[in-house]
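=== RUN LOG ===
request id: a7f3
mode: sequence -> structure
chains: 1
length: 942
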Amino acid sequence: MGQIERGLFEFCGWEMDLAKRELRALGAPVPIGSRAFDILEVLVVAAGDAVSKDDLMRRVWPGIVVEENTLQVHISAIRKALGKDRNLLKTISGRGYRLLGNWKSGAPSFNETAPSVRTPSADARYVSKIPASISDLIGRESAVAELLTLASAYRVVTLTGPGGIGKTVLASEIARSLLPSVEGDAFFIELVSLQDPNLVPTTLAQTLDLQLQGDEISAEIVARCIGGRTMLLVVDNCEHVIDAAAMMIEALVRTCPNVTVLATSRELLRIEGEFAYRVPPLEVPAREEATGTLEHSAIQLFVARARALQWDFAADTEKLLAIAGICRHLDGIPLAIEFAAARAATLGIQQIAGRLDDRFVLLTGGRRTALPRHQTLRATLDWSYQLLPDTERELLCGLATFPGGFTLDAAVAVSGDGEAETALAISNLVSKSLIAFDGFDAAPRWRLLETVRVYSLEKLGVRDEFRRTMCRVAKYFLKLFKPFSEERSLQTALDNIGRYRKETDNVRAALRWAFSDSGNGVLGAKLAAASSDFWTAISLVSEAGDWAERALENIGEESGSRTEMVLRCALGYALIYTQGMNERGKEVLTGALALARDLNDYDYRQRLTCALWLFSARSAELSDALTYAREYEGAVDEQDVRGRATAAWLVGIPQTYHALHQEAGERLEWAATHYPLENRRTDLLRLEADVRTSSLAHNTVNLIAGGRLDAAILTAEVAIQEARETRQPFVLCVALAWSASFVSLTLNDLDRAQEWGEELLVEASKHGLQPFHAAGLCIKGSLAYRLGSPAAGIEALRTGLAELRNGAYLLFYPFYLCELAAALQSMGRFNEALNEVGNALLFSEEKGYRWMVPEILRRKAEVLRAQGLSETSLIEGLFQQAMAEASKQGALYWELSAGVSLGAFREASVPTVLLPIYRRFTEGFSSPRLLEAKALIEASTA
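=== RESULT ===
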């Protein structure tokens, strides 16, 4: 690059001094990095002309390939240095940049518009006192690249972050990487041992060997002594002498134009020209990530350190999953991970993973040569904690009670101070790397790293102060979740469910404390009641029941109140979905309904009437279910479309299984069509069911019975699609169970039955919905026998039926007894098959479960026919009885099914019996049973 004559450029109080390589504002030096100064020099010499990005990169980084974002970082640094005049640097879209203004030059001429380059002499010898690397730097490639760019754009780069994050190691690595391009001396200044902040300038002077004399060595004296020397300084551990360190570094950048500073501190310096780089934790795998674990830097560090201590350490899949959990629990902090790896080499991975709650005792044993505060995890945090003023210590300990992070409102509630004071304290704790910003949703959120949180909780203690703090936390969440406990505000709460979902872990913590020996059971009961609909809204019905049960054990003075009513309702519904229909659930719900009547609470009267209806319907007590349905219907106003649709659904379902198919179908279709969907989300919580998808699913029974087979298939698909959209597992399980059982298996669509049945098993297992898991097992068994594995099918069916019986979830029971009989028949176990058919028939007669009777009679006849020991007239009579029962019900499909069996048994019946039934169908001709009927008819005609 050619040389240019040195000069001074001026414009509106700004000066560019090329000789001193200094940018000044009104005579005062402005901190700016060396590369950023080079860019500004090119632009000022261009005298207002645009300079392209490529040209800038070629001139400022000659012979080096750099990314465009590197140039953008330096442009941002220049604009930051220009401050209120940042608009002087203008971006020319698609071309490059230009510097506005008439910059007058004090030099007579320039030979070439390129930045000057200082070429060191061949015998130049520079001092370097940067520590050598002890071990490989793992997982910091992107941080190194970013910091190298920042160091050439800014005069001061401060690496911040919590203790143990790796600030010193990273700063040292950056300094070593910069050494070839510094063209000056490089020094590492340790401040960690200083107790007196006044000794910061003296420490700097001694490290740089400035040989200053006098009683008082000030920051200004040190800076003037350095003067124009080119230096790279790493100033390590500034936080405990932060004010003095800031004054020293600010004096350096103001007085020494060729000094670049890399500082490390748990707190920002807050000086002009500083760029703050928050050192991120190492990457850890997500909880659900089971593969590619070793691609994450935290895991790589753990394995490398473990192997350094144990040469034969082998990380198999099981170990890697445990290591991932350890690294997640330690927030990806390198120092903590190194401690854990050291202990794992002697104690084993599983021991470490299982004892992280005692991490401050466990994670010790850093390198003997490390600083004392880096030899144990506790010492690392003690260092930061002891530097805090009392108000910030108290707030930090209070905020540790929020495992899921917190908002400003929550912090105010726990601190007891005003919003302004609390916000300032949070800001200070963020700048000291003890609190991390956690994003902005409805409101800004912050969190404590888990290790910091555990430490702070320990400082809070377990006695009076902890109890007072947790009381404030519980009362805060009681108020926050109040909208879920009132019908008029429930929809608003659901519209903001994302905000509440973020508080899940916090509410759990408050409830756990409330129900502990040192807690406040009554306060916990109120919070459990207020949040009960929230748990259901986020698909945690089982958890809603768990908290309700614990709350009822601690109900105290709230006995007989609305709180008890709400808790009983939550527990009763949870028992229905997770355990089935047992006497305890019925007793809980009956007591809740009595309270709702006493308290004249219309909302909960509706909720609990539906709950007891659901209990009765699912246990096949159809008459009781119809009684509850009529009670609900009788209380609904004629103008209340929502209430009328709900009533039609409640009445229509027991009518379906009473085999009143025409009326039931009309009611369920009306409910599905007229139910107002704007009420869907609230009613999912109020009724613990989705009126529309439930109506669709149950109505498939009526559609199939009536011979509307295509409509049944379409209805099943719509029910599943809409159920998925609700994101409620119990709603989806209803749709899957009916569609896989009563539609796919009935119509012999085995592919669809397998798809939906497997999904049902997964959903039921994941969410602890035992009755639906039982139905899934029965589907699995039916498929096995139909696909040629009757022994496996029988085993699965027996297991599923036992679970249905134990949970008293009996709407499917006779259907799968018939499936079991068919599987037994296929293996020649006829007596067992007849016994199961008898059980199904007895159950249906006792419960008034009439819709299955035609199919049960047909199956009995098929077993007797296959056995070959019964009179022809008996078998034929059973087929005819099945057809007569189906005809009485208006069940065209079941009448055809029995007619097909009769036609196969006695061919002469086909023209007179089967053909008239077949002709009444208008759809479903591709279904297996209708194809079988068609084949019999064609054969008889031929």
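=== NOTES ===
Residues 1-5, 107-123, 368-375 have pLDDT under 50 and may be disordered.
The first strand starts at residue 8 and ends at 11.
=== END ===
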